[in-house]
Amino acid sequence: MQEASTVKDRPAAQYVRMSTDRQDFSIEMQTLAIGEYAEKHGYEIVRTYADAGISGLDISNRPALRALLADVVTGTPDYGAVLVYDISRWGRFQNPDQAAHYEFICVEAGIPVHYCAEPFANDGSPASGLLKSMKRLMAAEFSRELAYKTKSAKEGLRDLGYWTNGAPGYGLRRQAVTRSGRALKICQYGERNPHLKSRCILVHGPPEEVATVRRIYRLYIQDQLSFSEIATHLNRDGLRAENGREWRWYTVRQIITNEKYAGTYVGSRFPQHLGKSLPSRPEDWVRLPGFVKPIVTKATFESAQREYVRRRRVPTNEDLMAEIQALYAKHGFVSAALINAYSGRTSEYYRRRLGDLQTHFANAGFVMTKRQLTSSANMHVITERRREQGCVLSDEHIVRKLRGLLAVEGRLTIPLILSTPGVPTPATIRRRFGNLKAAYAMAGYIPSARQARLMHTGLPPASLNVS
């Protein structure tokens, strides 16, 4: 251990962390040990950084440690050392070099890190470096072993029919049961199981919630309402979603797409390991039929899934034009107001996908109203005037602008386009090329899978010969 210093009242900061909120005395115990160390070695604690109930695997979820490093880097701290209980409190990073890097940031700024409960002095000696490296590896290995044991235990309980996944969802509740199967207390939202030696199973919630779940399926399948329309109906009738919140489209979708409402548990879709969750392949999912008493029949659930797939299909440009042609055949004319009222989509959606609607109307042989003809003629005059004045970029110039932005940023996104002077707005790009994905492709950028899903994509227009 380090010897006591003869210098008194040197200012220092302490960093404390506990992994879960059930470690009721962890922060207090660390603070007490650090206080004894500070008194013995002549330090005065002037600042406390505390991450309570936060895992040490990743710095992104540790605001206190990030704040400490930010204060150290900016050179504004009012202390000259950082005191930590031990190596594991600093972090259980799976790459030991990451923990060493954060410590080096402090040391480089002239603020050493002291581990108060470790049996060695953090003095930069070879022995100290070797021991720290071993301790960091041990801290990381502890997390790996604990994660594996926890995962195996939860999977074993799940296979026995016990619920281990937190909130059960709307229309369902957790019920504590003994090992012999005797029913105990039904836990409400946010309530922990008070019986330490019991486990939880899923059961039906209040009858009004069960009835609402069945109503949601009926509105979606039979009445052909969208998620948003169903949420509007439920809110209008004074019904509340899980935990008393208002209904939103995504809460309705969660009920429509979750097979537990048909009695089947589906797990391992996003398996977690060491604080990270990644999607798995459907063939790796765990399916346990009969896990809970169904609220809707299997046939009803499968019907909802077929409807969900049908509605999710992204229509092609030809599909959109066919929809407009059907409107024209029924009403004898086409306008933005008519599209908004009867097509099930907004006119802006068609405009983003197809570009100038009036041009498409004319090319399709639609008879335009006098007002539409006047508006189209005026817009054509204005566009030609702006083009003559050099205010309207050609398609080739727009692609070059995007290429230039791509060369600087390495990617193309809507926020980057909006914040870069000289680059046309996303709405302009959509009108010219039909959709952003097509323009990105011409500029030589392939969006990520997530970015592509967020776009309204259709068939790309004909390629431009841009030199």
Structural account:
This protein is α/β, with parallel strands linked by helices. The chain is built from 19 helices and 11 strands. The chain has a 4-stranded parallel beta sheet with strand order 2-1-3-4. Strand 1 (10-17), helix 1 (26-41) and strand 2 (43-51) form a beta-alpha-beta unit. The longest helix has 34 residues, at 126-159.
Keywords:
48% helix; 3-stranded antiparallel beta sheet; alpha/beta; 467 residues; disordered N terminus; disordered C terminus
Secondary-structure class: alpha/beta
Radius of gyration: 31 Å
Strand content is 5-15%
Distance separating the two termini: 70 Å
Order of helices and strands: EHEHEHHEHEEEHHHEEEEHHHHHHHHHHH
Strand order of the largest sheet: 2-1-3-4
Uncertain regions spanning at least 5 consecutive residues: 1-7, 456-467
Number of strands: 11
Number of helices: 19
Helix content: 40-55%
Mean pLDDT: 81
For the largest beta-sheet, the strand count, sense and barrel status come to:
4 strands, parallel
